[in-house]
TrEMBL record, chain A:
Residues 70-284 form the ABC transmembrane type-1 domain. This is ABC-type sugar transport system, permease component. Pfam families: BPD_transp_1 (PF00528). It comes from the Bacteria. The keyword Transmembrane applies. PROSITE patterns: ABC_TM1. It is a multi-pass membrane protein. The keyword Transmembrane helix applies.
From TrEMBL, chain B:
GO terms for biological process: transmembrane transport. This is Sugar permease. The lineage of its organism: Bacteria, Pseudomonadati, Elusimicrobiota, Endomicrobiia, Endomicrobiales. It is found in: Cell membrane. InterPro entries: MetI-like, MetI-like_sf. It is a multi-pass membrane protein. Belongs to the binding-protein-dependent transport system permease family. The chain crosses the membrane at residues 14-34, 77-99, 108-131, 143-164, 185-210, 243-264. Its main location: membrane. Keywords: Cell membrane, Membrane, Transmembrane, Transmembrane helix, Transport. One of its GO terms (cellular component) is plasma membrane.
Length: 296, 279
């Protein structure tokens, strides 16, 4: 069937709403971010002062708070990569072995990822409370004394780690679900053959499960990095970056600068942070491409 | 019982112990939230007990009526229903066009769309704030909804296009010859066939919008328009010590999403997989 130019133009109406919304509310703000980042501007004054890359330079070389927020996000990410993904893998392996009640465990482990960051943050803030939080009570019941009035989120020694624990609590079920889906694609015959050959559980894991799971594990790894670097709701609701910036992460900093009316500076920081995340995203594409090749 | 069976029984029991401990750790904070929402303030401050001494259901009445959680709740319901409806409508129209129709600029637009899936969102809230301000949509329901809808489009188009691509073309061609319009084919044939993909998108976007906080924080100041996640933070800033009420608010914000999750698990897991492997 031949398509006339008129028909082609009519077909445009199908994408017009998407095109319009997308251009105005997604594309334009992305481009505007770059523009704003080279101006010093508080969002109110008529004059925007062009400063070139000065704000970038300041963030990169004279803003230790930005770097410590990156380091905090880095620590949260490192903990999530090791402890959270390790737990997710262990649980996925345990559940795959024809365990009774698999569905119940799966349902429960995926409950925290479904809850909102604000709800999770506020529940845990209550659990962690020094005076009437249940955590300290629980510790004293099992014989660990010395935490009677300890404020986990208020102390610079434990605040970041306490926040990271909640982040991992919320996130491990997500990795668990993806890894479980990956494990279920491995043919049972491989294990049966290995058993006939006398391979023990560890050898089976090392030679079958692990190599076949690498592509999925790569994806889980990258999703964990992206998710952990962008943590915001949890931090905002539990500590808002405190005590004294010890739980600040890049997005809380970007938000704080915006809230202080430093619009240009805030966007420059957003661009730098965005580039870091973009590099991670490209790693994801690269990894999933590799995954596709492996399947073929 | 032979040694193999004994070994298996021990192994299985150990497995169940580990799984059960983790499961309890997952559920307990949620249980604690609900239990605390039924206590009174004195009990929270003075003693720790698994269940409330007296069950203060009245906390929920107070939360709904006096602490504005009723208002926040219905705002969230409104944003979720309207947002999801327009995401599905607009994304499915565009996805159908990308899968089946010819139009100028088709490839460029599609690549740009997919590219933005990779661009991280956190950076854009300053320009978004300025944009809404200049459009007079700051602190408005419409402004927040437009952000939600446009955020959901790229992934929706991507997923539905993949689905429409797979549908056999024969039925549509027959309908076209019978004089059915392109829009008629989209509406009567393609859309009903895409139900499974649409169900996944409805659930995923409902979860996203119901749980969204950052945009609501940037866009809204007026309490009357706030969704529940934003309302919770306002409440916790204003009435810092009223824990039973706060916990009642948290429970109100959680119950709908947990019900949706329990009913729709299959679609959620499917959506997660689609999202994870989107690259």
């Amino acid at each position: 069937m031949k398509i006339t130019a008129k028909e082609k133009a009519q077909n445009l109406t199908f994408i017009l709403p998407a095109l319009l919304l997308f251009t105005v509310f997604s594309l334009y703000p992305i481009l505007r971010t770059f523009e704003l980042s080279v101006f010093q501007w508080n969002g109110i004054d008529k004059d925007m002062v062009f400063v070139g890359l000065a704000q970038y330079k300041h963030i990169l070389f004279d803003n230790p708070q930005f770097w410590s927020s990156m380091a905090n996000a880095g620590i949260i990410t490192a903990l999530a990569l090791t402890l959270q993904n390790g737990l997710a893998l262990l649980l996925a392996l345990l559940v795959t072995r024809n365990i009774k009640g698999e569905n119940i465990y799966r349902t429960i482990f995926f409950l925290p990822p479904v809850l909102s960051g604000i709800v999770v943050g506020l529940i845990w803030k209550f659990v962690y409370d020094g005076n009437f939080g249940i955590l300290n009570h629980f510790l004293s019941v099992i014989g660990i004394t010395g935490f009677a009035d300890y404020a986990w989120l208020g102390n610079i020694k434990t605040a970041l780690f306490s926040v990271a624990v909640v982040h991992m609590w919320k996130g491990f079920g997500y990795g668990f679900i993806i890894l479980l889906a990956g494990l279920q694609t491995i043919p049972v015959e491989l294990y049966e053959a290995a058993e006939v050959d006398g391979a023990d559980a560890w050898q089976q894991f090392k030679n079958i499960t692990f190599p076949l799971l690498i592509p999925i594990f790569t994806i889980v790894t990258i999703l964990t990095i992206l998710g952990s670097m962008q943590v915001f709701d949890l931090i905002y609701s539990m500590t808002n970056g405190g005590p004294a910036g010890h739980t600040d992460v890049p997005i809380t900093k970007i938000y704080q600068y915006m809230n202080n009316g430093e619009f240009g500076y805030s966007t420059a920081m957003a661009v730098i942070f965005g580039i870091v995340l973009l590099i991670i995203s490209f790693a994801q594409i690269y990894a999933s491409k590799k995954l596709n090749y492996n399947e073929k | 019982m032979n040694i193999y069976k004994v070994k298996k029984t021990i192994y299985d029991s150990l497995t169940h112990v580990i799984l059960a401990v983790v499961a309890i750790t997952c559920v307990f904070p949620v249980f604690w939230m609900i239990s605390s929402s039924l206590k009174d303030q004195t009990e929270i401050f003075t003693k720790i007990s698994l269940f409330p001494e007296t069950w203060n259901w009245g906390n929920y009445v107070t939360a709904f009526v006096k602490a504005d959680f009723g208002q926040y709740f219905f705002n969230s319901v409104f944003y979720t229903i309207v947002g999801v409806f327009f995401i599905i409508l607009i994304a499915s129209l565009a996805a159908y066009a990308f899968a089946r129709l010819e139009f100028p600029g088709k490839n460029i637009f599609f690549y740009v769309l997919i590219a933005t899936l990779l661009i991280p969102i956190p950076g854009v809230f300053v320009p978004l704030y300025l944009l809404l301000k200049s459009l007079g949509l700051l602190d408005s329901r419409t402004g927040l909804l437009l952000c939600y809808i446009s955020n959901g489009l790229a992934f929706g188009i991507f997923l539905l296009k993949g689905f429409f691509d797979e549908l056999p073309k024969e039925v549509e061609e027959a309908a076209l010859i019978d004089g059915c319009s392109r829009f008629g084919i989209y509406w009567r044939i393609a859309l009903p066939l895409a139900k499974p993909a649409i169900a996944t998108l409805v659930i995923m976007n409902s979860l996203t919008i119901w749980n969204e906080f950052l945009l609501a924080l940037v866009v809204l100041q007026d309490k009357a328009k706030m969704p529940i996640q934003r309302g919770l933070m306002v409440f916790q800033g204003t009435f810092i010590t009223d824990y039973p009420l706060l916990m009642a608010g948290l429970t109100i914000a959680t119950i709908p999403i947990v019900i949706v999750y329990l009913l729709m698990q299959k679609h959620i897991v499917k959506g997660i997989a689609a999202g994870a492997l989107k690259g």
